[in-house]
User: Which sequence fits this backbone?
């Protein structure tokens, strides 16, 4: 998963500067548009052609998410409400199935990405600059079934406890979790295992 995350963060940083990446914009009613997209915090920037001005799209506008296509990689982001009372935010969809695995890096919604003297710099809300373009002060992972209102956050310190409860309907997976066959670095494999072996 590390290589994948590296590519994704690199990919998304590129999108923070422009709206000319090939993209598909998905709406909550099931329709979609092909065009060019980018990100501005938790807002999607999208235009149908490179000659158009980019429009801003949010969850409130009926948007479900966006998929960026390029570098032989597809990166899909979806709006997900992670807590009651909060607005949905863009999370990376890492694994899709009966259980979806999402990833959130605070780099996207909480930091600004700028060019300064030819270098990529990421500033936090205190206007402090970090010269490492892959800096993210926190990564969070969530699992969610389609019928669930809110996702379940997988906190590293409670990794086993959370996952054994969430996947309690699959005894063989719970056993593998107990035997340390999965960890935070292999969450995608864990979710894929559940979908392949334990889902109806």
Assistant:
């Amino acid at each position: 998963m590390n290589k994948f995350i590296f590519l994704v963060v690199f990919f998304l940083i590129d999108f923070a500067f422009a709206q000319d990446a090939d993209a598909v914009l998905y709406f909550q009613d099931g329709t979609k548009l092909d065009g060019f997209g980018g990100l501005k915090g938790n807002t999607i920037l999208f235009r149908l052609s490179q000659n158009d001005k980019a429009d801003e799209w949010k969850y409130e506008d009926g948007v479900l998410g966006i998929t960026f296509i390029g570098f032989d990689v597809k990166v899909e982001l979806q709006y997900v409400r992670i807590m009651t009372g909060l607005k949905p935010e863009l999370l990376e969809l890492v694994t899709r199935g009966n259980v979806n695995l999402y990833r959130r890096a605070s780099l996207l919604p909480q930091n600004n990405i700028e060019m300064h003297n030819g270098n990529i710099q990421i500033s936090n809300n205190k206007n402090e600059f970090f010269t490492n373009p892959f800096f993210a002060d926190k990564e969070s992972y969530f699992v969610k079934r389609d019928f669930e209102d809110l996702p379940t956050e997988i906190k590293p310190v409670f990794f086993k406890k959370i996952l054994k409860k969430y996947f309690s309907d699959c005894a063989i997976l719970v056993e593998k979790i107990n035997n340390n066959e999965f960890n935070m670095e292999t969450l995608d494999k864990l979710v894929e295992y559940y979908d392949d072996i334990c889902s109806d």
